[in-house]
Specification:
CATH topology of the largest domain: Amidase signature (AS) enzymes
Number of strands: 13
CATH superfamily of the largest domain: Amidase signature (AS) domain
CATH class of the largest domain: Alpha Beta
Strand order of the largest sheet: 1-3-2-4-6-5-12-13-9-7-8
CATH architecture of the largest domain: Alpha-Beta Complex
Number of domains: 2
Shape: globular
Number of helices: 13
Largest sheet: 11 strands, mixed
């Protein structure tokens, strides 16, 4: 943690607990000091749980003293995104409609972390209903990027990445419905993983509005820490395989620098191109190819599913619920109300088509490599950049590379690459076939070690 005498990574911190060099109580104290120092400016944690965290840290310290830790991450502090339910902690989903909602049970992935002994610092900020690529809402206001507070950390996991990148916590639990882990991780120099759909079962959470597109995943400073989280979160019938330092084989990588004529910031394009060359230097086969699917059709499927899901949710919350939402969310909901059942069925058919197309591609390649985001971070209070590389773009122009992994269910991993000329973080994205999460981690880990 920045300015801390304790190790900055979760695995190293747990090692200090095991050796007696540090205790979970000391780690929590330093995290809380960091929260006090930087959270007022960044607005990452919006519902803290100091009392619960202190109790959990003391219990963890006793377990380590007795030689009975619940997991390798017992006692490690973590933040939880505010669209995930934590027993006894307010969960707002970034909306005034849930301003006073306090769940009485943990959502399943949260329960798994609690059972593993992790210490919950609190809930992190999100845009309303986690449907936008920046982080701001009427309840809590704007979250800012630790690298440059005038800029956004992205969204919808903006509070989560800001908490980790600023040193408030070494880990964060978040969700990814269209790139909401990967793009914010790329904007803040972190590791972000969107697991294969179904790899981490969800239950006892908010209503589902994104079909099966949204999954739970880890955000961390190192790939080793993210892997350790996945070992706790993954379902027992498909346990997380220990990740080796070297991939079991050289990978066949399809490098897609652009999706059609969608613009990409030149500095991002250059940095990710250099990363692709580094993959070749590691012995992987890298072919540059065009976008291997119908981008507009996939984007429309995402728009239809998300708008219809939101309209359904707000209808269930009662007459006039939409009027309590922000203008952008109202626009999405009104679009959802205009859709027909046939539109939704068509979107599901397009998702199935994409899965078949990518299934064919993954017969020839092990991974797809793209930028994680098309734009560098933009002003924090703007919902999206209005231009990329001098070309006007809409609300998801910056997000063009990520949603296809959600629609198809494929695993995807965001890794930091060389920063911009101004020192802003940039990330690449690796997308693999269903169930290839661990192989992506092995490719990514080897790449990061070479990059140094």
């Amino acid at each position: 943690m920045s300015g801390s005498a304790l190790p900055p990574t979760a695995i190293a911190l747990a090692g200090a607990f095991a050796s007696g060099e540090a205790s979970p109580v000391e780690a929590l104290r330093e995290c809380l000091e960091r929260v006090d120092a930087v959270n007022p400016a960044l607005n990452a944690i919006v519902t803290p749980d100091r009392e619960g965290a202190q109790k959990a840290a003391m219990e963890s310290a006793r377990r380590w003293r007795d030689g009975r830790p619940l997991s390798p991450l017992d006692g490690v502090p973590i933040t939880i995104k505010d669209n995930l339910l934590v027993r006894g902690l307010r969960a707002t989903w970034g909306s005034a409609l849930y301003e006073h909602f306090v769940p009485d049970r943990d959502e399943l992935p949260v329960a798994r972390l609690r059972a593993a002994g992790l210490v919950f610092l609190g809930k992190t900020n999100v845009p309303e209903f986690t449907l936008q690529g920046y982080t701001d809402n009427k309840l809590f206001g704007c979250t800012r990027n630790p690298w440059q507070p005038a800029l956004t950390p992205g969204g919808s996991s903006g509070g989560a990445v800001a908490s980790v990148a600023s040193g408030m916590a070494p880990l964060a639990l978040a969700t990814d419905g269209g790139g909401s882990i990967r793009r914010p991780a790329s904007h803040t120099g972190l590791i972000g993983h969107k697991p294969t759909t179904g790899r981490i079962t969800r239950a006892d959470g908010f209503p589902v509005i994104l079909h099966d597109f949204e999954v739970v995943g880890p955000i961390a400073r190192t790939i080793t820490d993210a892997s350790a989280m996945m070992a706790i979160l993954a379902d027992g019938d498909r346990p997380w395989r220990p990740v080796t330092e070297q991939p079991s084989r050289r990978a066949r990588i399809a490098y897609v620098p652009r999706f059609g004529d969608a613009p990409v910031d030149p500095q991002i394009e250059s940095s990710v191109s250099s990363a692709a060359q580094m993959m070749e230097e590691l012995g992987h086969g890298v072919d540059t190819i065009a976008c291997p699917f119908d981008l507009e059709r996939t984007a429309e499927a995402f728009r239809t599913i998300s708008a219809a899901g939101l309209a359904w949710l707000l209808r269930g919350l009662g007459k006039g619920a939409v009027e309590h939402c922000g203008a952008d969310v109202q626009a999405i909901a009104h679009h959802g109300e205009s859709l027909r059942a046939a539109d939704y069925a068509g979107a599901l058919a397009d998702a199935a088509r994409l899965k078949r197309q990518l299934g064919d591609l993954f017969e020839r390649y092990d991974a797809i490599l793209t930028p994680a985001a098309a734009a560098l971070p933009w002003p924090a209070r703007k919902s999206h950049p209005e231009e990329i590389a001098g070309i006007a773009v809409g609300p998801r122009g910056h997000a063009v590379f990520t949603a296809f992994a959600n629609v198809s269910g494929c695993p995807a991993l965001s890794l930091p690459v060389s920063p911009s000329d101004d020192g802003l973080p940039i990330g690449l994205q690796l997308v693999g076939a269903w169930g290839s999460d661990e192989f992506l981690f092995e490719i990514g880990g080897e790449f990061l070690r070479k990059r140094g």
